[in-house]
Design brief:
mainly alpha, Tetracycline Repressor, domain 2, 0% strand
Length: 220
């Protein structure tokens, strides 16, 4: 029912347990502190390995960032591919929202800025992921909701899908000082309500309102 994701990047050798451990820890460190402030010494120290061992798996920081971004996309793809597709469109969106909040609630707001400014090749990997994988996923959800009569059909699905992606980027971005005082999960929750109310049919909005508390308890 939902398209399998396609990652438009190289795939690091995830069978290499040491490399996978490096990328997993790097992903967590970059999410928490941003990219610019983190050195290769910091990564080696966090992993309790020597820089020599680190450099056996990545050539430099730029290579580490690129492989970490690709690893992160693979992780997201695998998790989203294994979500229960037997639910209705609203339930499925809430499943993904819960995953996104768990993954990004402690993300440093400078992450995307650092990626774009200092690691443009890695940012392109992320951009391709956003343009293909995320866009296809959101469109699939909307079309399912239209088929189930949960969502209206009198709007441009492509435009609304890109607006949704734009809202996610805005929430994750460091550009909005006015939004910086709010927790990520609160911003994401309000964005979901805003989105679903905007495209929902009376039936879909009724389902959302009747199940909102349960859905948020289960996922957000």
């Amino acid at each position: 029912m939902f398209p399998k994701f396609i990652v438009f990047t190289f795939a690091p050798d995830l069978k290499n347990e040491v490399l996978e451990k490096i990328l997993e820890h790097a992903d967590r460190i970059f999410n928490k502190f941003g990219i610019k402030s983190i050195t290769m010494d910091d990564v080696a120290r966090e992993l309790a390995i020597s820089k020599k061992t680190l450099y056996q798996h990545v050539s430099d920081k730029d290579d580490l960032v690129m492989k970490t971004v690709s690893w992160h996309i693979e992780k997201v793809r695998d998790i989203c591919d294994n979500l229960d597709t037997g639910k209705n469109a609203i339930d499925h969106i809430m499943d993904i929202a819960g995953f996104m909040i768990k993954m990004h609630q402690h993300t440093n707001t400078s992450l995307l800025y650092d990626l774009k400014k200092f690691h443009p090749q890695s940012y392109k990997i992320f951009f391709d992921h956003k343009e293909h994988m995320m866009f296809s996923q959101i469109k699939a959800h909307i079309h399912l909701g239209i088929t189930q009569k949960m969502f209206r059909k009198d709007f441009n699905v492509d435009i609304v899908s890109r607006l949704y992606i734009g809202l996610i980027e805005f929430i994750l971005s460091s550009d909005s000082v006015a939004m910086s005082d709010y927790k990520f999960e609160d911003k994401y929750r309000e964005m979901i309500i805003y989105h679903l109310n905007g495209i929902g049919t009376p039936e879909g909005i009724l389902y959302l309102n009747q199940n909102k508390k349960k859905l948020f308890q289960n996922h957000l």
